[in-house]
Structures are given as C-alpha cells and as structure tokens.
Amino acid sequence: MKTVGLVIRPSTPNIKTSFLQIKSELEAKGAKVLVEKVSANLMSCDGSELDEMCKNSDILISLGGDGTLIALARKSYSYNKPILGINAGNLGFLTVAGKDDFGPLLDAVFAGDYTIEKRMILEFEHKVNGETKKQYAFNDAVITKNIFSKMIDIEVYNEAHLINSYYGDGLIICTPTGSTAYNISSGGPVVYPLANNFILTPICPHSLTQRSLVIPGELNLRLIVTDANAVIILDGQETVELSKGKETRVQRAPNDVMLITPKGIDYFGILRKKLGWGKE
C-alpha cells in the first residue's frame, strides 16, 4: 500500500490533532498521503484535487462522521477504491474506528488483516439539457416537492409495470446501508447492509394503506412526478431538480462501494449499541 487519500470533516472540533496523528502514522508506515484540497486548505498543508487524489490512491480514508464517508463514497464512485472510515463525528454507523483508537486498525490494514464489504449504491439517470446525466446515492434519495405547502404524486415503475403511486410529502428510495437513516425515521425497515435490495418508503402518505416496500436490487425502476415540479435529494447532500412528467431511471450501480472493515465485525452489535436496542 503506497498511497493513501485522506478527506476530513473540517467542522469537527480539534480535528487537526487527529489529522496530524493519522498522517504521521501513515507516513511512518511508508505511505504517501494525499490530502483532498479543501481539507488541506483547512489543515494548512499541501492538497490534491479530489479526482487526482482518488485516481492516485490505493485506499481512501474518511476522517469525520458518516456524512463525510457517504460523500466520499458517492464522489469517488467511478474510481472504485476501498474506503476506510475513522469516526470523528457523533453516531458513526459506517465508520469502524474512533479518532483516538485508530492505531490498531491501521496496523491491521497495512498487514492485510481486514475485510472488504461490498455495498450497493444507487445510480440515477436523467436528461439535463438533452444530455444523459448519471448521479449516485450511497445512502438514500428523497423525492419531494419543491413547494412545501403542497403534496406530490410520484409513480414508480419496474420497466413498463406500475409498482405504485405515492401521494404525500415524498418518497425515500434507499439502499440497505441507508435503511438506518431517514428510512427508519419514517417507519421503514432495517435491512442487512450486504443485502441486494431497494427500500421504497413513503413520507407522510395521504393514504394509510401506503407502507414501505422492499424489492430486489435487480429491478430497473422508473420514476415520474405527475403533478408538479420536484427535487431529488441525494444522500442529503446534493439536489437535482425534476420537471413535471419527466422520467428518472434508478438502478443498482454496476460497481459496489468497498468499505474496509475489521475482521469479525458484528453488525447486530453495532445496531444494539447505536440504536439502544433492548434498553428501556
């Protein structure tokens, strides 16, 4: 492992100390460290453009919360590089070590003693000024109205076959990884993160019969907002405008996101700890 790319969540208090410790330890192991340009400016060091960093790195490290890792997974998708998450945030579902105890994990990674988890990511395809544009969501995509005082009508198809029409505040389409985010807050199910499924969860539906739906990841979905202009919010971080009647295609992206995890990681233990399962 010769080169490591590093992205930092700049708003975390005292993160510079953790950054310098991680950078120093990586360099002591003989790795060249490329720091993403925006992160580097805040850390007062040399930086690389994100594309250049991703292209030239063997692995990528996210130092921050889940949002930092999710953004890195989406933005680096086309480079197909493994990602290691070090938590400097709050919840930390996806990050596998803390900013104060990352040393043993780095030792294991450089010794090759780790596991790669392959997790699905959503690919959205739509027309922008006559050209096909593809965008990605690792956690979820929220289709919602752009006028808050109105409801929205969304039709979802599997190719030519109507799956359902959703009338309400919007619709969440999430991956199993994203099932513990907005989806669970909206009454959707928790799905094992390595499963191959889409989860469709309506947001405040007008009909009490509307419920979450778990469907195979092999399906090719089409979305059409029939009654108004709308927006798609990707991972809570990027917004795409949708015109009334325009079609958006959704499918499992050809490649998965590769997350570096310790061997023997206990996903259900993480759920119990982070969600407080079994506690009164």
What descriptors fit this protein?
280 residues; alpha+beta; Rossmann fold; Tumour Suppressor Smad4; 2 domains; six-stranded antiparallel sheet; 7 helices; globular
Task: Give a nutshell description of this structure.
The protein is built from 7 helices and 19 strands. It is of the alpha+beta class and 280 residues long. The mean pLDDT is 90.
- Averaged pLDDT: 90
CATH superfamily of the largest domain: Probable inorganic polyphosphate/atp-NAD kinase, domain 1
Number of domains: 2
The CATH architecture of the largest domain can be named as 3-Layer(aba) Sandwich
Classify the fold: give the CATH topology of the largest domain: Rossmann fold
Strand order of the largest sheet: 8-7-18-15-10-11
Strand content: 35-45%
Uncertain parts: none
At the first level of CATH, the class of the largest domain is Alpha Beta
Number-wise, the strands total 19
Shape: globular
The radius of gyration computed from the alpha-carbon positions, rounded to a whole number of angstroms, is 20 Å
What share of residues is helical? 10-25%
